[in-house]
Amino acid sequence: MTTLLLVYSAVLLLSVLVSNLANRTILSTAVIFLVAGFLCGSGVSGLIPLEPGDSIVATLAELALFSVLFTDGMRVGWSDLRSAWRLPGRALLLGLPLTLVLTAAFAHWVAGLDWIESLLIGAVLAPTDPVFAAALVGNDKVPARLRHLLNVESGVNDGLALPFVLIFLTLASGSPDLHLGALAGELAIGLLIGVAVPWIAIRLEATRLFSASARYQPLNALAIGLLVLGLALVTGGNLYLAAFAAGITIATCGPRQRQAFEEFGELIAELLKLAALLVFGALISPAFLSEIPLGGWIFAVLALVVARPVALALSFLGSGLNAREQVAAAWFGPKGFAAVVYGLLVLDSQIPAAGSVFHLVAVTIVLSILAHSSTDVLVARWFDEPDETPRWHETGDTAPAPPREPDPERPDSPS
């Protein structure tokens, strides 16, 4: 634990020092933490001797995913969805299920897994992450509808994929009938906590008796999130659905609390996400990668370059997006950070095929992080020039001569 903290602190400082460079080049903070974890893991240097069953792995994954879903939910209140739902709605209601099904089909036909495990992989790899498209989302030259699409989709699809992950994970266990009943109870309790706690807290602050000072205002949403986490742990409610529901409730009922917490909350979530990436990288070793068969590598490539592009191409038929916008949207996914933690949950679940599923998930996520987080700047620069017909001097053709103005002194002058 001490060594893990030391390595994390050193890598975090390095990432901060090169963050300005990373914003302008293909260098990526996510890649730095992933590679650092790989080099410090037990399979290489042994500085971070973590094993999949270590409690720190499950605890860190749990906290990281809770914070990500909480901030994701806060990013998209109901008013945001109502104001511009058409394109994100296509990506979420059509693109997400199609991506899940196509990924599952590749896992079944190429990697040779059973359908339940294949559908589980599809659900784990379906979410996207705005961090891996940060340069695109933050570039004002990128069309606003594309930036809004990527931001809303990545903020919502983590929560939408979660029930599918839990259901398929339950079906892959030994006694699904018994577990499905317990899962339904967990989801219901989590949803209730996630809606009730922030709603009551925001209503209390609106009374004359309670009022948060300007200094403590950013801690308001943090306190709500911690209370939701504690109640979910005590009651057995689903932590992740509670976090997502709480974020949406705050964004819907407390825009002031949302605004005060936004920057602070993003930093907290980022710290936990980077820590989980470091741990994830430490679990991957040369021996781990050598255990993945050729079919697994082919599956990972198909999941990256075929599943989501085909799913979004079908989803955006007749949407009005031009080809450049569709290509950019299709490229940034999979895989979101939630997929990293969902993969760790599968590994910790001890289902019979946990090892095989995690190997496929891990190699896909590694390739995705290397590819997507290193190309966001390049794709963003693609939008620096307007999408228009090339000028004559850019094509090398000879420009046509301008028409002659009529000369009133010459009767044969063109008119």
TrEMBL record:
<feature type="transmembrane region" description="Helical">
    <location>
        <begin position="30"/>
        <end position="50"/>
    </location>
</feature>
<dbReference type="GO" id="GO:0015297">
    <property type="term" value="F:antiporter activity"/>
</dbReference>
<protein>
    <submittedName>
        <fullName>Sodium/hydrogen exchanger</fullName>
    </submittedName>
</protein>
<keyword id="KW-0050">Antiport</keyword>
<feature type="compositionally biased region" description="Basic and acidic residues">
    <location>
        <begin position="387"/>
        <end position="396"/>
    </location>
</feature>
<dbReference type="InterPro" id="IPR006153">
    <property type="entry name" value="Cation/H_exchanger_TM"/>
</dbReference>
<keyword id="KW-1133">Transmembrane helix</keyword>
<dbReference type="GO" id="GO:1902600">
    <property type="term" value="P:proton transmembrane transport"/>
</dbReference>
<keyword id="KW-0406">Ion transport</keyword>
<keyword id="KW-0812">Transmembrane</keyword>
<feature type="transmembrane region" description="Helical">
    <location>
        <begin position="115"/>
        <end position="137"/>
    </location>
</feature>
<feature type="transmembrane region" description="Helical">
    <location>
        <begin position="56"/>
        <end position="78"/>
    </location>
</feature>
<feature type="compositionally biased region" description="Basic and acidic residues">
    <location>
        <begin position="404"/>
        <end position="415"/>
    </location>
</feature>
<dbReference type="Pfam" id="PF00999">
    <property type="entry name" value="Na_H_Exchanger"/>
</dbReference>
<keyword id="KW-0813">Transport</keyword>
<feature type="domain" description="Cation/H+ exchanger transmembrane">
    <location>
        <begin position="14"/>
        <end position="374"/>
    </location>
</feature>
<feature type="transmembrane region" description="Helical">
    <location>
        <begin position="294"/>
        <end position="317"/>
    </location>
</feature>
<feature type="transmembrane region" description="Helical">
    <location>
        <begin position="149"/>
        <end position="172"/>
    </location>
</feature>
<feature type="transmembrane region" description="Helical">
    <location>
        <begin position="6"/>
        <end position="23"/>
    </location>
</feature>
<dbReference type="GO" id="GO:0005886">
    <property type="term" value="C:plasma membrane"/>
</dbReference>
<feature type="transmembrane region" description="Helical">
    <location>
        <begin position="178"/>
        <end position="202"/>
    </location>
</feature>
<keyword id="KW-0472">Membrane</keyword>
<dbReference type="InterPro" id="IPR038770">
    <property type="entry name" value="Na+/solute_symporter_sf"/>
</dbReference>
<feature type="transmembrane region" description="Helical">
    <location>
        <begin position="329"/>
        <end position="347"/>
    </location>
</feature>
<feature type="transmembrane region" description="Helical">
    <location>
        <begin position="267"/>
        <end position="288"/>
    </location>
</feature>
<feature type="transmembrane region" description="Helical">
    <location>
        <begin position="90"/>
        <end position="109"/>
    </location>
</feature>
<feature type="region of interest" description="Disordered">
    <location>
        <begin position="387"/>
        <end position="415"/>
    </location>
</feature>
<keyword id="KW-1003">Cell membrane</keyword>
<feature type="transmembrane region" description="Helical">
    <location>
        <begin position="353"/>
        <end position="371"/>
    </location>
</feature>
